[in-house]
Design brief:
This protein is an alpha/beta fold and about 500 residues long. The strands form five sheets. Strands 2-1-22-21-20 form a five-stranded antiparallel sheet, sandwiched between helices. It has a five-stranded mixed sheet with strand order 18-8-6-3-19, covered by helices on one side. The radius of gyration is 26 Å and the shape is globular.
C-alpha cells in the first residue's frame, strides 16, 4: 500500500491532485455563498457613490465584487467579501471575458502550448530551383503569426532551393471550421482591425500596415504597405501640405472601394511626421493568398499556377514545422493590449484536435464543461460567444468573474495569468492610467459597457480581487467610478 500511494507514484499524484482540487472547490463554494449573501445588502464606498451621481448613473447599473486573497489563519472563519454589489446580475463584460478564455486555455492547453504551421512540397526539385509540383502551407491557428515571422518562413522556403513553383502555392486552413463573417456586422466598421475574423492561417492579424513618410524636399508623403499584396496596386505618394496634424486619416480621403487599388484623394500634413495606419483589408477572404503571394514575389519567387486554398495530401511529409510563441507569451499580448482577434483564435484553439475542425460551438461546449467542473453551483453559467468580449450576447456575473480570478490565483499557472494583465500606469491599455496603485487589471469597453477586473495590492501588502462592470448608455463616461473603486481598495 505504501508503494502504491508513494509520493512519486502515479496514484499518489492523482490523490494529491484530487485533494487540491477538492480544497480549491470548497474554498470557492464558501466564497460564493458569502458573496451571494452580501450581494444586495452592502453599501457602496462613498467615493464610488459620488462618482456615480456625478455622471448620473443609478447604483443598479454597477456590479462590483471585492474579495481578500489573503487566506485566514488556521481555525479562523472565512473572511466576508469586502464588497458585493449586485454581484449576481448577468452583465455584458466587454473584454473582461478574455479572462475566462485565458484561464480555461491555461487549464486545458497549458502555458507551454504552441501552434504549428507546416510546410510541404510535392514533386521533384530540379537543379535550377524549379519545383515540378505544388507547395503547401498548413495553418495551425497561430494567434501571433506576425509579419516578421511570416517573412522568415517564406525566406526559409526559398532557402530550400525553391525559386519557381511549377504548380500552385496551396494554403490549407482546414483546422478551423470555415465560417463566413461580415466584418461590419458588429458596429458597421468593417475596416477596423479589431473586427477581423479568426483564420487558421492568420498573417499579421489579417491587417495591412500603411505607412506615410513625409519627404519635405519632394513635397509628398511616400506611401508604403506591408505586407506586399499580390495583385494590389497602391498609390505611391500623397501631396504634402503645411499645417497641424489633426485627423490625418480624414484628410487623406482614402478610397478603398476597389480592393485591388488603394487610393488617397486628399493630402497629408507635414507636422504629422511618420504615421502607420493599421487597416483590415477590404476583401478579407483574399487576404492570406494575396499576402503570402506578395511576399513570395518580393523574395524573387514565382508561381506558374495559382495561390489558392486547398488541402495537404495525406501522404506528404512536412519539409519543416514552424512553432509559434507559447500560450504564456500569447496571452500577454492578448490581454495587455486587449487583442480581440488573438482572443478568438485562442478560443477556437480550445477545440483543436477533435475529429472535426475546431469551431466556436465546440469551444463553447468546452468552456461550459470547464465551468461546471470548476465553478460553484450558485453561479449562473456565463454566456459565451467567441471568447473575446466583442459581443453583445456574452454575459457573466461579477461574482462569477471573481470566482474565475480566485481560481486563477490559486492555480499552478497563477504567475502566467497575472503577468498577462496590464500593470497599472506601466503598460498596455493602462499605460496612461492616472491611478497610483499597485495592480494588475484588465479593462473592458464597448458602447454602453465598461469594466475592470484583476488584482490590487495595498501598500501594506494585502491583496484583493476587484471586479466592476457598468452597463448603461452613459457607461463610457463612468471611468471615474472604476478608478474610485480601485483607489478605495488600495486604501484598505
Amino acid at each position: 500500500m505504501r508503494s502504491l500511494l508513494g509520493a512519486n507514484s502515479g496514484l499518489g499524484r492523482l490523490c494529491r491532485s484530487l485533494i487540491l482540487r477538492s480544497r480549491r472547490s470548497i474554498a470557492l463554494v464558501l466564497s460564493a455563498v458569502l458573496v451571494h449573501a452580501f450581494a444586495l445588502g452592502q453599501n457602496l464606498p462613498a467615493s464610488v457613490e459620488v462618482q456615480l451621481k456625478k455622471v448620473g448613473l443609478p447604483e443598479s447599473s454597477l456590479s462590483a465584487v471585492v474579495r481578500s486573497l489573503d487566506l485566514p489563519k488556521a481555525g479562523a472563519p472565512q473572511a466576508s467579501p469586502l464588497l458585493a454589489h449586485h454581484s449576481d446580475v448577468l452583465r455584458t463584460p466587454a473584454s473582461l471575458m478574455k479572462l475566462l478564455t485565458t484561464q480555461v486555455a491555461l487549464d486545458q492547453l497549458g502555458p507551454g502550448f504552441t501552434w504549428k504551421t507546416a510546410f510541404y512540397k510535392e514533386g521533384e526539385l530540379k537543379g535550377d530551383g524549379v519545383l515540378e509540383g505544388n507547395v503547401y502551407i498548413k495553418g495551425g491557428g497561430d494567434p501571433k503569426l506576425t509579419l516578421d515571422v511570416a517573412w522568415k518562413m517564406m525566406q526559409k522556403l526559398r532557402a530550400f532551393g525553391i525559386k519557381r513553383i511549377q504548380g500552385d502555392l496551396v494554403l490549407d486552413k482546414s483546422v478551423f471550421e470555415t465560417v463566413s463573417q461580415d466584418p461590419g456586422a458588429f458596429d458597421d466598421q468593417p475596416l477596423r482591425p479589431y473586427n477581423v475574423g479568426a483564420d487558421a492561417l492568420l498573417i499579421n492579424f489579417n491587417a495591412l500596415l500603411i505607412t506615410f513618410i513625409p519627404d519635405l524636399q519632394a513635397g509628398v508623403a511616400r506611401v508604403q504597405v506591408q505586407p506586399p499584396m499580390q495583385g494590389v496596386s497602391v498609390q505611391a505618394t500623397v501631396p504634402l501640405v503645411k499645417g497641424p496634424c489633426t485627423d490625418y486619416r480624414a484628410a487623406l480621403k482614402a478610397n478603398f472601394d476597389n480592393p485591388s487599388t488603394l487610393q488617397f484623394k486628399g493630402v497629408y500634413a507635414s507636422e504629422c511626421q511618420e504615421r502607420i495606419w493599421p487597416l483590415a483589408y477590404p476583401k478579407p477572404e483574399e487576404y492570406t493568398e494575396r499576402a503570402l503571394g506578395g511576399m513570395w514575389q518580393a523574395l524573387g519567387g514565382t508561381v506558374s499556377g495559382k495561390v489558392r486554398l486547398g488541402l495537404v495530401p495525406a501522404a506528404l511529409k512536412p519539409l519543416w514545422v514552424e512553432n509559434s510563441s507559447t500560450l504564456a507569451q500569447v496571452i500577454r499580448d492578448m490581454n495587455k493590449f486587449s487583442n480581440n482577434v488573438m482572443a478568438q483564435q485562442l478560443f477556437l484553439s480550445l477545440s483543436l484536435g477533435a475529429a472535426r475542425p475546431a469551431s466556436f460551438e465546440q469551444s463553447q461546449e468546452r468552456v461550459k464543461s470547464w465551468w461546471s467542473l470548476n465553478m460553484p453551483k450558485t453561479n449562473p453559467l456565463a454566456v459565451i460567444d467567441k471568447g473575446s468580449g466583442l459581443s453583445r450576447s456574452e454575459s457573466i456575473t461579477a461574482s462569477g468573474l471573481a470566482d474565475v480570478l480566485e481560481l486563477a490565483w490559486r492555480s499552478p499557472w497563477m504567475p502566467e495569468f497575472v503577468a498577462s494583465l496590464p500593470s497599472v500606469a506601466q503598460e498596455g491599455t493602462l499605460e496612461r492610467s492616472g491611478l497610483g496603485v499597485m495592480a494588475h487589471l484588465k479593462t473592458g469597453s464597448l458602447k454602453d459597457a465598461v469594466g475592470i477586473a484583476g488584482f490590487v495590492q495595498t501598500p501594506r501588502g494585502a491583496r484583493y480581487i476587484v471586479v466592476a462592470m457598468i452597463n448603461d448608455p452613459k457607461a463610457n463616461s463612468a471611468r471615474g467610478v472604476l478608478d474610485a473603486l480601485v483607489n478605495w481598495v488600495a486604501e484598505q
